[in-house]
Amino acid sequence: xxxxxxxxxxxxxxxxxxxxxxxxxxxxxxxxxxxxxxxxxxxxxxxxxxxxxxxxxxxxxxxxxxxxxxxxxxxxxxxxxxxxxxx
Length: 87
Fold this sequence. Notes:
Elements: E1 2-5, E2 8-11, E3 16-20, E4 27-31, E5 36-41, E6 47-53, H1 55-60, H2 75-86
Antiparallel strand pairs: 1-2, 2-3, 3-6, 4-5, 5-6
């Protein structure tokens, strides 16, 4: 797993992006849509992070599922950071 920037890690072998935007020790994950798991606090339901399976594959294919994620963070900026640091 490679540290990309603050609160962002990327697993190149499995193409998985992990983003944390809060304390996710008391969180659960909702996978909706497929391949995008939004982590939410058990008590407040606030978003605490996102895990995206097949992240770069989805990004390169301009997958519509990623269009819902920018409400939490900038997928374009993160994809550029991942590609700069890995390739």
